[in-house]
Design goal:
alpha+beta, binds serine, 11 strands, globular
Length: about 475
């Protein structure tokens, strides 16, 4: 079964069960606490907390979506069998209050563990036809430290065991790191999870948002949510790989056309290299289509690193220069039926080429400079970044192994942050502490046009604030 069929079956299955299908939100989130969209639940946060009403917005307390997501811990991980920076996540959601938690009941009210678990199992074993013997699951086993106690998710265990009929030895209890989902470093809905594995590969994460996680005052507190919710997520690439019996996500029908094109144009034999190009070119296309542009900070810096890594490899291995253009065309053909924003390949390619042109000027010199070092520490690496625009992972990739023996990311990041802090202070001084560039830090990256835009937005924000004060009071 290919990815196209999986998409359709997933949405049909949940639509039949009262879910409204909601389009993916942009990869650039509205939520200022996030750089990029990492999960399907993000666009639904205000419905979990009760700030917005799902009935007025979706006509149902149940939604389903296929969400564009971007996650990276470490760019260097990409190139193996499983890591991707961009991926799509299939998800179904319920916003409380719970009505009938009955999987036979196809209404529009909120549901909880029983329906979520039984539907997930039915979808995998009946709709996708996966043999029940291949399935195992995990549940939240409980957590306690001196301040916080969260009880084991007995209810999910009971449902798997008694209602679904999963043998006890195939239900594992796991700790907080694995089976409890919540916002990292910020506040939000959170709760225990149950995960579904096919042949030992995790495919589906079902989160039961029972709590609201408060982090104020440095102390963590969980409060029971008045209306519990369901948030599930299943990576399309990984699921497709499992169903197509492929060892890795790059061999699926989602990547095949992209990787074959790269192979055809470059004739490179190195699998890792093809995967890096494939992953980065696909991810960058999606980010640019959502209006992100390369910058020296925030999400734009992530895009910049992707683009520079693509280019650095192309230079090092003397790869065909038209690669980006040809590959973006394939990405667009493949994905624009689902994401019309990918139709405009001209803009995507233009952004890539502009970045290429800017980087090309310095990279050769930068690599030459890098070669002069016999050993490199964090601050020297940062200097190479600052002067020649060489991101950390490129330094690691292109330096001789003995040169980077003592180089670690933390030290580099520390330099980076110190530098940003300095330029932030500089900007603040220059603008009389006015706050204009407070969270950009990188004043020198702004051109005149962008500057003027920020100034007008800033002024309009003042006007809006004043208007609100006039109407609502201080
Ligand atoms: N939010 C959860 C995750 O990202 C489930 O969708 O895994």
């Amino acid at each position: 079964m290919g990815s196209r069929e999986i998409r359709k079956k997933f949405l049909d299955f949940f639509q039949e069960r009262g879910h409204s299908i909601v389009p993916s939100s942009s990869l650039i989130p509205n939520d200022p606490s996030l750089l990029l969209t990492t999960a399907g639940m993000q666009q639904f946060k205000p419905y979990f907390t009760g700030e917005l009403n799902p009935i007025s917005d979706f006509g149902s307390r149940r939604t389903a979506s296929i969400q564009k997501c971007f996650r990276i811990n470490d760019l260097e991980e990409i190139g193996d069998n499983t890591h991707l920076s961009f991926f799509e996540m299939l998800g179904n959601f319920s916003f409380g209050p719970i009505g009938k938690d009955d999987p036979e009941h196809f209404g529009k009210d909120g549901y909880f563990k029983k329906s979520a678990i039984i539907w997930a199992y039915q979808f995998i074993t009946k709709t996708l036809d996966v043999e029940p013997e291949r399935i195992s699951v995990s549940i939240f086993g409980g957590y306690a430290d001196s301040r916080l106690r969260i009880s084991k998710d007995e209810e999910s265990r009971r449902i798997w065991l008694e209602e679904v009929g999963i043998p006890a030895e195939k239900i594992t209890g796991r700790g907080r790191e694995d089976n409890f989902w919540g916002p990292t470093g910020s506040e939000g809905p959170c709760g225990p999870t149950t995960e579904i594995y096919i042949d030992g590969v995790e495919v589906w994460n079902l989160v039961f948002n029972e709590y609201y996680c408060r982090t104020g005052g440095g102390e963590e507190k969980l409060e029971k949510l008045e209306n519990p919710g369901v948030d599930t997520g299943m990576g399309l690439e990984r699921l497709t790989a499992v169903l197509e019996n492929q060892e890795d996500v790059f061999s699926t029908d989602l990547f095949q056309p992209i990787t074959s094109k790269i192979l055809e144009l470059t004739r490179i034999q190195d699998n890792r290299l093809i995967r890096i190009q494939g992953d980065h070119l696909r991810a960058a296309s999606f980010l640019i289509a959502d209006s992100l542009r390369p910058e020296n900070k925030g999400a734009g810096y992530i895009l910049r690193r992707l683009l520079r890594r693509i280019l650095a490899y192309q230079i090092k291995y003397d790869i065909h220069q038209g690669l980006a253009e040809e590959t973006v065309k394939i990405v667009s053909q493949q994905y624009s039926p689902f994401y019309p924003e990918l139709r405009d390949t001209k803009t995507i390619v233009k952004v890539m080429e502009d970045e290429e042109a800017a980087f090309q000027k310095t990279i050769t010199k930068g690599l030459e400079e890098l070669n002069k070092f016999s050993s490199l520490d964090g601050s020297q690496a940062f200097h190479l970044y600052e002067t020649f625009g060489l991101p950390f992972e490129l330094i690691k990739e292109f330096a001789r192994p003995e040169t980077i023996k003592n180089l670690n990311r933390e030290e580099f990041e520390k330099e980076f942050i110190t530098h940003q802090e300095k330029s932030r202070q500089g900007a603040e001084k220059k603008f009389g502490g006015h706050g204009l560039f407070l969270d950009t830090g990188e004043l020198k990256a702004l051109d005149k046009k962008e500057y003027e835009k920020v100034v007008s937005l800033h002024t309009v924000t003042h006007l809006l604030h004043q208007a609100l004060r006039d109407v609502l009071g201080q």
